[in-house]
Amino acid sequence: MTAADWIAEEHKYLFQNYGRQPVVVERGEGTRVWDADGKEYLDFVGGLAVNALGHAHPVVADALAEQSRRLIHTSNLFYTEPMIQLAKLLVENSCLDRVFFCNSGTEAIEAAIKLARRWGHDVKDGAFEIICMNDGFHGRSSGALAATGTARYREPFGPSLPGFTHVPWNDLAAVKAATTGRTVAVLMEPIQGEGGVNMPAPGYLKGIRDWCSQNNLLLIFDEIQTGIGRTGTLWAYAQEGVEPDIMCLAKGLAGGVPIGAMLAKEAIAAHLVPGDHGTTFGANPLATAAGLATMRYIIDNDVTAQGARGSERLMGRLRSMEDRVPLVTEVRGRGMLLAVGLSRDCSADVVAACRERGLLANNVRPNAVRFMPPLNVTDDEIDRACEIFEEALLAVAAPPK
Ligand SMILES: Cc1ncc(COP(=O)(O)O)c(C=O)c1O
């Protein structure tokens, strides 16, 4: 079958709830993928910040092969070794004390909402309101959707779960004004990913941390996109001099295998007791073995620093386009979570022009293109991607007559 045949079959058999790019990805290696017609691409979408180590990394593949022959699944009625080892590694390398495993980002957020409300129930006279940010993204399940700050995603599925307030990003006064006697937590991304790679203003996160501490509110960081070395340190909070009380992870945690995790400080985690929360596949041995292999490799080989070095090169090359290419208005982001702002709503055309030339990118906003390559992307791959991107920008700015 050709790629076109596969796409026709997809249109026939799957829900049409995704705006997919017309590429049937058949296999990958490192930063490269090949489609069903054998065409090669540089993959700077990186599985939407999932493929921290690129495609088919031997460390992840070997861990999966080995674990799948030993034990794929048991249940949370029993203990397994990989879940304990991965939890220990996460705790030893973060400011949090305990880990709950689940299967996706949205589930990690659900867990955090429940933990915050359970804590509010136990120690804050039933406080339950959660302050979230406009343009924040936390997932598609009902709780995570209620926290998500884009009304267009929420409204067709109302009524929304009550108890969520949204305030403008980078507006500390708005957080203060939205706080009531029933507020239990602030839930936010340290850098907004899906919202378009929106950076926190200097001191903003510190200001929120201080406000939460002064008012006995929990600070929940959604590091689902920013975690696992994505922004140049293992967790984005480390660069802001603040610590969350609860942190949500998913995406890159198991190198491409579905997983989610909620981490919390001991005094808060203690409020979830047997029977309060759970999920059949959570802490699954296959997923946690992949997570353990991925995280060990990243930590032992300082892949985070490698990503930070690559980011300097990528950021530098993209920034140099600000002067040369009129369509480019700014380059924003940190580490390997970068976006290029465009002077008009043509990001879909730019991404299509990149694709034709062998580069996969993401039109995160109508006027912004996002890059999230693997942390171990090579200098040559960065240089080639930038050449293609510039050609694509020029082609869109002045299409051939
Ligand atoms: C910051 C953030 N939170 C939550 C989610 C939801 O994660 P998932 O798609 O695994 O449910 C995403 C997904 O893009 C995300 O970027």
In one word, what is the shape? Answer: globular
Q: What is the number of strand segments?
A: 15
Terminus-to-terminus distance = 34 Å
Mean pLDDT: 97
Rg, Cα atoms, Å: 21 Å
Secondary structure: helix percent: 25-40%
Q: Helices and strands: which structural class?
A: alpha/beta
- The oligomerization state is single chain
Task: Give a structural overview.
By secondary structure, the chain is of the alpha/beta class. Helix content is 39%, strand content 17%. It is built from 14 helices and 15 strands. It has helices at residues 3-13, 46-49, 58-70, 81-92, 105-123, 142-147, 151-154, 172-178, 204-214, 266-269, 285-300, 303-324, 347-356, 379-397; strands at 25-29, 32-35, 40-43, 98-102, 129-133, 164-167, 183-188, 218-222, 246-249, 260-264, 328-334, 337-342, 359-360, 362-365, 368-371. A 7-stranded mixed beta sheet has the order 4-10-9-8-7-5-6, with helices on both faces. The protein has a 4-stranded mixed beta sheet with strand order 1-2-3-13. A 4-stranded antiparallel beta sheet has the order 11-12-15-14. A hairpin with a 2-residue loop joins strand 14 (362-365) and strand 15. Helix 3 runs antiparallel to helix 11 (285-300). The longest helix is centred in the C-terminal third of the chain and has 22 residues, at 303-324. It is globular and about 70 Å long. The mean pLDDT is 97.
